[in-house]
Design brief:
The protein is an alpha+beta fold and 392 residues long. The protein has 2 domains: 3-51 and 184-385, Naphthalene 1,2-dioxygenase Alpha Subunit, Chain A, domain 1 (Alpha-Beta Complex); 56-174, Rieske [2Fe-2S] iron-sulphur domain (Rieske Iron-sulfur Protein, 3-layer Sandwich). It has helices at residues 3-18, 39-50, 134-137, 176-180, 184-188, 208-216, 254-266, 324-361, 373-385; strands at 29-32, 55-59, 68-74, 77-83, 89-93, 107-109, 112-114, 121-123, 128-130, 146-148, 150-153, 156-159, 166-167, 196-205, 233-243, 246-253, 274-280, 284-289, 292-300, 307-315, 365-368. The strands form 5 sheets. Strands 14-20-19-18-17-16-15 form a 7-stranded antiparallel sheet, with helices on both faces. Strands 6-3-4-5-10-13 form a 6-stranded antiparallel sheet, with no helix packed on it. Strands 2-12-11 form a 3-stranded antiparallel sheet, with no helix packed on it. Helix 1 packs across helix 7 (254-266). The chain starts with a helix and ends in a 7-residue tail after the last helix. The mean pLDDT is 96. The structure holds FE2/S2 (inorganic) cluster and fe (ii) ion. The site of fe (ii) ion (FE2) has 5 residues, from loops.
């Protein structure tokens, strides 16, 4: 982020804090608790959002080199993102076309992917390149692994998950220009294509919207995160930006609150006086800046009450295994963030999930306050894709 832009955002934060805390929405938004657990509603969210719009499957940094791959089990389908020897990232169904066995697990780098069942072998562009005892097998009419439409942009691999997988050439790639709605330069600010992976993890969580709700508000910092994030960031001191369904928001540090614009003008890198979250609809959020990022992708699980979050810790400076103090510091930061997300945010989210039946049974609403504008925008966009009018 340019210095001028950071100063302008600091100025908005300082003004918001002088007026009471955060920038405000026009009114409140009521979301019935039942909307978090109704199976019909949940199925519609999966079909009309997750299967309809281009969704980020992985950061490019996870498949940085030719012949690298990462598996992603999402929405009940086993997928495989692989970068071919030609440098192109593709999304495959992680299933051998012989009789459907799972081809690979985890992540790695292999020139050839060999099916564990009968040993059919594919290259990383998905072409079938080896069949044991081929002369005995008879004819094989296949163009290789099944593919989903994929596009790589801004250091991210997007795919259309609801498309019918096809062998050989995939259907037309997702139209990212339309989908990103001007958000591309905001993603570019994170320099995702230049990032290196520090650590990855998968976290089971509550309903995907319950999980997502925790990413949007700074209102909870001084309560839930009082001993962690709340020591750095002020609760309820947030400003908001939006590009179509995508958002970016900024939280004031105590330092900005205490020092005001004088501290911002004196700071060599004023963006460090804010915490920034860049949120790509529907499910991907980046916390931090180009020097260090926590990327979180939340996918619905097998039922309304579950989700899975792929976390990738990224940073621009590669890890030097010889520099143990650098490595220790990087891993300490990973553990700290994992603690915040797992023990604070997701523990709270799972408890909310347990309370949903009682809340929904009593026809309770979750109320998003005027100071929870990013949450309001998120739910309004979810409803938009479900063709539900939020103004009613
Ligand atoms: S199912 Fe893969 S080789 Fe038979
Ligand atoms: Fe949180």
């Amino acid at each position: 982020m340019e210095r001028e832009e950071a100063l302008a955002l600091c100025e908005r934060l300082v003004a918001a804090m002088a007026a009471g805390g955060s920038e405000l929405a026009e009114g409140q938004l009521h979301v019935p608790a039942a909307e978090y657990r109704d199976p019909t509603r949940w199925r519609a969210e999966v079909d009309r959002i997750f299967r309809a719009v281009p969704v980020v499957l992985a950061p490019s940094a996870l498949v940085a080199e030719p012949n690298s791959f990462v598996t992603r089990d999402v929405l009940g389908t086993a997928l495989l993102v692989a970068r071919g020897a030609d440098g192109v990232a593709r999304t495959f169904v992680n299933a051998c076309v012989h009789r459907g066995a799972r081809l690979c697990d985890g992540a790695g780098s292999e020139r050839r992917l060999t099916c564990p069942y009968h040993g059919w072998t594919y290259d990383t562009a998905g072409r079938l390149v080896g069949v044991p005892h081929r002369d005995q097998f008879g004819d094989i009419a296949t163009d290789g692994l099944l593919q989903l439409p994929t596009a790589e942009r801004h250091g991210l691999v997007f795919a259309t998950l609801g498309a019918t997988p096809t062998a050989g050439e995939p259907a037309a790639p997702p139209d990212l220009d339309t989908w990103l709605d001007g958000f591309g330069p905001i993603l570019d600010d994170l320099a995702l294509a230049d990032q290196h992976v520090v650590a990855v993890s998968e976290l089971p969580g509550p309903n995907w919207k319950v999980a997502k709700d925790g990413y949007f508000d700074g209102y909870h910092f001084s309560a839930l995160h009082k001993d962690t994030l709340g020591r750095v960031y002020r609760g309820n001191a947030q400003v908001f930006e939006a590009w179509g369904p995508h958002q970016r928001f900024h939280f004031a540090t105590h330092r900005l609150h205490d020092g005001g614009m004088t501290s911002a003008h004196e700071h060599p890198r004023p963006h460090q006086l804010m915490g920034t979250v860049t949120a790509l609809f529907p499910n991907t959020a980046f916390a931090g800046d180009r020097d260090g990022l926590l990327m979180s992708q939340v996918f619905p699980g097998a039922a309304p009450g579950t989700s899975i979050t792929f976390q990738t810790h990224l940073r621009r400076r590669p890890l030097d295994p010889a520099d143990t103090s650098d490595l220790d510091k990087a891993l300490e930061r990973v553990r700290y963030l994992e603690f915040v997300v797992q023990e604070e945010d997701y523990a709270t989210g799972l408890a909310i999930g347990s309370n949903l039946p009682a809340m929904a049974g009593a026809a309770q609403d979750f109320v998003f306050g005027r100071n929870e504008l990013a949450n309001q925008r998120f739910h309004t966009w979810v409803r938009h894709f479900l063709e539900i009018d939020s103004s009613q």
